[in-house]
UniProtKB/TrEMBL annotation:
GO CC, any one term: nucleolus
Protein name: Aminopeptidase O (putative)
SUPFAM superfamilies: ARM repeat (SSF48371), Leukotriene A4 hydrolase N-terminal domain (SSF63737), Metalloproteases ('zincins'), catalytic domain (SSF55486)
Gene3D superfamilies: 3.30.2010.30, Neutral Protease Domain 2, tricorn interacting facor f3 domain
Domain annotation Peptidase M1 leukotriene A4 hydrolase/aminopeptidase C-terminal: ranges: 641-772
GO MF assignments: metalloaminopeptidase activity; zinc ion binding
InterPro entries for the chain: Aminopeptidase_N-like_N_sf (IPR042097), AOPep (IPR033577), ARM-type_fold (IPR016024), Peptidase_M1_C (IPR015211), Peptidase_M1_dom (IPR014782), Peptidase_M4/M1_CTD_sf (IPR027268)
């Protein structure tokens, strides 16, 4: 690889050579065995070499130079929300696919480190490390590098897609007379580029190809963070097999999933949003740029429910007594890190019948092909897009299901079930079209490390949100719903810019929740101001207790979004355990967006946000994409001194709390004046951070009020200075000093008055004298 890693460091490597070759589709075929705590099976990768996708990326980038472009006009795709192929037809006939929980599979021939017991492979790949390269330089053999850890890779082989009946339609010749590597790769190239309106056919062919026989084993090797695959004689990505099958199994200690028991004491396993993402669940390309689709067949004992990131509301297919199969698929290209699975004895809650007014939005999303007409053009790669569907754009409440351990169904029925429809409707009223066609909500086990996690078509929520009324449940639900737009439909191209996901979700959760509660504008404003105050205090605490380098929202600065020549990169502090619990990307990002919304006004800001979502959904973004389009779309009189460079400097590329404008400081200090107690440590931090003694008179007036209220004696000099130099605004402070009944403050008031009474306006002097004597 062309990058250096510090083994003792906390950076997360993304090893996949995505600049040379991309995974376009995954087909997973897996067995879940709770006895051994292992997920075992195959994954088939359909690949596209660099020359083709680089041309596609260039065309998309050119189309997205500005929000006014007409985008990439897509075909007339069919609706993408109806389950298709029967899961039974997707089950592999190979021996290893027997349901592992029902009967034991083949003996594992890998050693404890997951290396295949194949001396030819081991020797061949070990010696190849010096002569292989991830690119295509001269006579060196091409090396496919996948992100992978905590997995036992058993075998890698090329898939003979040309042997699948009907594949001749993907070749230039009517008959497959001479089968070659070039022909097989041609078939895959044609398959992965089928237009969006043939998505059903495409999924069917992916499934059929994934079950085709192998046509030659490939050499492979694993290290701590990657799986490396090569084929003898394949010197370039174009020559490398474009359909490969990997036989593998997870390890009980693998970091991508957690094996545990639910609140009812029943076994379960689920993805936990690990820092290593999904590379310990299946070999994949982790960098966000590797946008792919997937379909998966998962087998487990019949008593278990399998939930997954999928467009279809899957139902179990019984394979034989005691064993069921579940099938899910996704047609919207997403980073592999967003794939989510949860297998357990979950109970589905039954929804109350909808009122007649909501029934139209709650029916399964299956409009006729005639309804699937263009509402607007899109700039993303081609897929069946809801933003182009007239029915989807008006669908306020998408179909949803709720699952929970049996012991928590009552609590879910009382709180969660009632909140989902108004929160979904509120989100639609603010941002428009729901990016995803349906939603599963799962109450995860008690060991889940956060309050919630959003993935395509599925959301995890902690049991902690179910008690104490609806507020915490509603706000967290709104936060995760917001991620459907920011974090999923629009993802960060560089994972260090987490604020593009968490900052937006934090800001939008307040707006969604106020709309879901149907609050009057004044009530909504008061609720949001209170939450802003609480967040400000949390941000201050975090700034004091965290390293400065981890307080920066754009740590890579001008190198943001850059990768090595191969596409590999490193996520700074990606493995730092403290980072999981830090709130800086949430809070600092929230306050930046709040600042922008206040500067523009809510109507202008949210109108722009809907425009931005429509322009960039289905794509990866950087901070500059958002900021440049924002500044291009706001009136000159509201732009004032705003610039991308200023926002970078003040908010994104510096540690600590951002510099606020005077009006914002006044608002902040007024919020703090409503607090009953503030520590002197907090006041010192405020003074030092914002240099309050040097601000304008409006800010200093509120600062002096805080000093008086909390008897911050070390800053009494600021009060004296204000009473002497800002007499037009100081009268009220005299009253505050006297009302406190603090001898030292009263003495300060009288001393200042004696110094200034001769120069004071006569009426003002009389008012103050009445207060003091």
């Amino acid at each position: 690889m062309d990058m250096q890693l510090d083994p003792a460091g906390d950076d997360l490597p993304l090893m996949a050579n995505t600049s040379h070759i991309l995974v376009k589709h995954y087909v997973l075929d897996l067995d879940v065995d709770f006895e051994s705590q292992v997920i075992e099976g195959t994954i088939v990768l359909f690949l596209e070499d660099g020359d083709r996708f680089k041309k596609q990326n260039r065309s998309v980038e050119e189309a997205c130079q500005s929000e006014s472009n007409k985008g990439c006009k897509l075909g007339m795709p069919e609706p993408c929300h109806v389950p298709v192929t029967n899961a039974r037809t997707l089950s592999s006939e190979m021996e290893y696919n027997d349901c592992a929980i029902c009967s034991k599979g083949e003996k594992d021939t890998s050693d404890k480190d997951g290396n295949h017991d194949n001396q030819e492979h081991a020797a061949g790949v070990s010696s190849s490390k010096r002569c292989c390269d991830t690119g295509n330089h001269g006579s060196e053999e091409f090396l496919l590098v996948l992100d992978c850890c905590d997995l036992s890779v058993l075998k890698v082989e090329e898939v003979d897609v040309a042997a699948v009946p009907g594949m001749e339609k993907f070749t230039r010749s009517p008959e497959l007379t001479v089968v070659s590597e070039e022909l097989r790769n041609q078939i895959v190239r044609e398959l992965v580029t089928l237009p969006a309106n043939r998505w059903r056919e495409q999924l069917d062919y992916y499934a059929r190809c994934s079950q085709a026989a192998g046509c030659g084993e490939l050499l492979f090797d694993t290290d701590t963070w990657s799986l490396q695959i090569r084929k003898t004689g394949a010197q370039t990505a174009t020559d490398f097999p474009h359909a490969i099958r990997i036989w593998y199994k997870t390890k009980p200690e693998g970091r991508s999933v957690t094996w545990t028991s639910d609140q009812s004491g029943r076994p379960c396993v689920y993805t936990v949003g690990s820092p290593v993402n999904n590379r310990a669940l299946f070999p994949c390309q982790e960098p966000p740029v590797a946008m792919s689709t997937w379909q998966a067949t998962v087998r487990a004992a019949a008593s278990f429910v399998v939930l997954m990131s999928g467009e279809n509301s899957a139902k179990p297919t019984q394979l034989w007594e005691g064993c069921s199969s579940w099938y899910y698929y996704v047609t919207m290209p997403m980073p592999a890190s967003t794939f989510t699975i949860a297998v357990g004895c979950w109970t589905e809650l039954k929804m109350e019948p909808c009122s007649s007014g909501d029934s139209a939005t709650e029916t399964p999303f299956s409009p006729s092909e005639a309804d699937f007409r263009h509402v607007g053009v899109c700039s993303h790669m081609e897929y069946p897009c809801r933003f182009q569907n007239a029915f989807a754009t008006t669908q306020q409440i998408i179909p949803h299901r709720v699952f929970a351990p049996v012991c928590l169904t009552g609590a879910c029925q009382e709180t969660l079930l009632q909140l989902i429809p108004p929160c979904l409707s509120a989100a639609h009223s603010v941002l428009g079209t729901h990016p995803f066609s349906r939603l599963d909500v799962l109450i995860v086990p008690a060991n889940f490390p956060s309050l919630g996690m959003a993935s395509p078509h599925i959301m995890f929520l902690s049991q902690s949100i179910l008690t104490g009324g609806s507020h915490l449940c509603g706000t967290r639900l709104c936060h995760e719903i917001a991620h459907a737009w920011f974090g999923l439909a629009l993802g960060a191209r560089d994972w260090t810019e987490e604020w593009l996901s968490e900052g937006f979700a934090s800001h939008l959760e307040d707006v969604f929740w106020a709309a879901a509660q149907q609050l009057a504008p004044r009530e909504a404003r008061e609720q949001q101001e209170l939450r802003a105050c609480l967040r400000w205090r949390r941000l201050q605490d975090e700034m004091q207790s965290s390293p400065a380098e981890m307080q920066v929202l754009r740590p890579n600065k001008d190198k943001t979004g850059h990768t090595s020549d191969s596409g590999a990169s490193v996520i700074k502090h990606g493995l730092n355990p403290e980072k999981i619990f830090m709130q800086v990307h949430y809070l600092k990002g929230y306050f930046l967006l709040r600042f922008l919304a206040e500067r523009l006004g809510d109507e202008t800001y949210f109108s722009f946000l809907r425009k931005f979502v429509h322009a960039f959904h289905g794509q990866l973004i950087l901070s500059q994409d958002f900021l440049q389009m924002l500044l291009e779309n706001i009136p000159e009189e509201k732009r004032l001194e705003l610039s991308v460079e200023n926002i970078y400097q003040d908010w994104l590329e510096s540690s600590g709390i951002p510099k606020l404008l005077p009006d914002q400081l006044v608002l902040l200090l007024e919020h703090l004046l409503e607090q009953k107690t503030l520590s002197h440590r907090t006041l010192r931090s405020l003074q030092r951070t914002y240099q309050l003694q040097d601000q304008d008179a409006e800010v200093r007036h509120r600062w002096c009020e805080l000093i008086v209220k909390h008897k911050f004696t070390k800053a009494y000099e600021s009060v004296e200075r204000f009473l002497q130099e800002d007499q037009a605004m100081g009268v009220y402070l005299y009253g505050e000093l006297m009302v406190s009944e603090d001898a030292r403050q009263q003495q300060l008031a009288r001393r200042c008055f004696e110094r200034t009474r001769e120069q004071m306006d006569r009426s003002s002097a009389q008012v103050v004298a009445d207060m003091l004597f």
